[in-house]
Amino acid sequence: MANTIKRKYIGAICNRDLEVLENIKKFFIKNYNITIVNLMKNGLESFNTKYLEKRLKKYPISFLIVKLTTQELNEKIYRIVKKTCPEIPILNTLESIQICESRQNTFNFIKQNSKKILTPHSFSTKLEAIHISQKGIPIIVKLNSHNIPDLPKNDRIIGIAKTHRELLEMIKNYNEGDLFFQEYLGEHDVLYKIYVIGNWVVSITSHNRLQQINQLSPLELLHIRIPVEEPLKKRIIRLGRKLGMSVFGIDYIMTEKGPYIVDINDFPSFNNVPEGVSLISDHMYNLINMRELYRNAFVKAKS
Predict the structure, then answer these.
(1) How high is the pLDDT of residue 203?
(2) Full residue range of the structural domain in which residue 79 is found
(3) Sequence-distant (≥ 6) Cβ neighbours of residue 296 within 8 angstroms
């Protein structure tokens, strides 16, 4: 009797960058005969707790991808995953995804766990930011939530206050908990983006969203790849491991003191990295295989 190969499934709990997910899905079914099943029912708009639990139990899932916009509803999703399938490995841990939903939590984590990584000073409260601005230090104000649904990236930046009066005027219509305050390090025409997949790291140039995009020529808008210095590469990979992420993105600017990280994205879109889909797919496939090898070796040793 011929042996039948058991079909493998990857569960996806995703409602952002669905085009990238679809490309990964096609790559997996074509190259590895592995099916990716999106466990969300028509997105979060019609989210149903019992539906998600049922889908998680229905498929023999070998691996999970979680890639969500920032919403209060996410807490329910995290609880269901922890309750229903705590043993299934996740591409980026739920804890890392939760941290990256908040800019304040993200930069607090870096400050506490990665002393050698440079970041602009951030301020925990509105009063602290106002106090600092009174000393003549400019403050950049952003929305604290990272992946807000249906909100363009430019609109996630409230503005730059160069005086405390400007800051007071800028934030008067916002709740304090909705805002993130950080020292503004001055104009930088070029923003650098780093994409990480396991130990693979690539960096590209990008335009700075704080500058007038319409004034840039098509040549200036091109993304150019640049080398990543080895010390920075090691620190970023180490930061990802401390967070619990193996696929993530970093935005940084270059200063006289060196690179300053200004943003972290859990599982970015990889739109500007053509080989991203194949590398992510290979990375997940290797993680699944390594887990199965360890599990089979454990079962064999136990028997």
Answers:
(1) 94
(2) 8-91+277-302
(3) none
- DSSP for 21-47 reads HHHHHHHHHHHT-EEEEE-SSSSGGG-
Q: Are 110 and 260 in contact (CB under 8 A)?
A: no
Residues 129/139, Cβ–Cβ less than 8 Å: yes
Domain membership flag for residue 53: yes
pLDDT score recorded for residue 221? 46
Three-state secondary structure call for residue 111: helix
Give the CA angle between residues 182, 186, 192 to the nearest 5°. 85
Residue 162 sits in a domain whose CATH number is: 3.30.1490
pLDDT greater at residue 213 or residue 63: 63
Looking at the structure of the chain, the number of domains it has is 2
Q: Among 44, 74, 268, which Cα is nearest to 153's?
A: 268
* Distance in angstroms (rounded) separating the CA atoms of residues 125 and 179: 9
Clarify whether residues 76 and 14 are in a common domain: yes
Measured distance CA(149)–CA(121) in Å, rounded: 27
pLDDT band at 24 (very low <50, low <70, confident <90, very high): very high
At CA 88, angle to CA 87 and CA 93, rounded to 5?
Answer: 100
Cβ(180)–Cβ(263) below 8 Å:
no
At 18, give phi and psi (nearest 5°).
-70, -25
Closest Cα partner for 202 from 224, 169, 175, 182? Answer: 224
Which helix (H) or strand (E) covers residue 52, if one does?
helix 49-58
| Rounded Cα distance, 235 and 155, in Å | 30
Domain identity same for 77 and 139: no
Burial 155-184 (b: 16+ CB within 10 A, else e): ebebebbeebebbeebbeeeeeeebbbbbb
- For strands 34-38 and 8-14, give the pairing: parallel
Residue 223 inside a domain? The answer is no
Residue partners of 166: CB distance under 8 A and separation at least 6: 133
